[in-house]
Amino acid sequence: MILKVNILVSYAYLTESIIKELQTYEDQINLLIDSGAFTAWKQKKEITLNEYCDFMDSCPLKPMQFFTLDEIGNPKRTKDNYIELKSRGYNVLPIFTHNAELDDLEFYYQDTDFIGYGGIAGKRDKKFLQRFNKVLKQINNRQVHLLGVTNEKILKKFKPYSCDSSSWTSAGRYGTSAVYVGNGKMKLLNRLDCVKAPDKQVQQALKRLGFNVGELQNEANWHGANSVVNQVTCRGWVKFSLEAEAILNTRIFLVVVTAEEVKQIIEQFQYLKENKLCPKH
Q: Which of 22, 30, 125, 168 is such that its CA lies 20 to 30 A from the CA of 196?
């Protein structure tokens, strides 16, 4: 089996530069394409069915699958969109939204063996978890993609077919570094945490990834799009995604919004392969 890295990109962010990078490395990537409904919703814009169909018709990329065009907070419209796209001949991946009737779950699984589960990113209150557990119990061993969820406890408990996250870009967004310490766990550090040597677990994790503590203690290495800190975080997330697939049979798709992010993922993936740091699949 050819080892590949998993990447998810939204239609809303598919610029020519991102497309070019994805095409360059297409033999190393498993690609999913999302409709961009969430981004459009945040920007108070609308993506029409015809627009999305035109995009799929003209898209030069060859993803594993396109997600359906969902509508945030509107399970009926999301379902109607899926039905219409299927009637037009598009084999899109349906999205069961968190507030939808459970009957919709069975409707989708009668039509396909793989669905997305959306409206669940970043939520952990008691009411949410009760519903979340109920849905996943009904899904049972059927294939599901958890949109925006990579919590290691959830992945170990339910072992979904796939999921996705943009958390790997945390170093660039929040000035922190996520060091992958193994077993699905990340340890967050900021620059002040590294003034003195971090604990032994972090030091050992950095060494396994090909870094050393001194690099994180150098302030200059915390700045720039391809800083050492960004490399630490990205390399750790790529390793986490490869381990999750090897151990749990769960595919973690890393979300990209720029061409530079595609390059970063590929560079770290290649480093892990060249230095024999990838788990056996």
A: 168
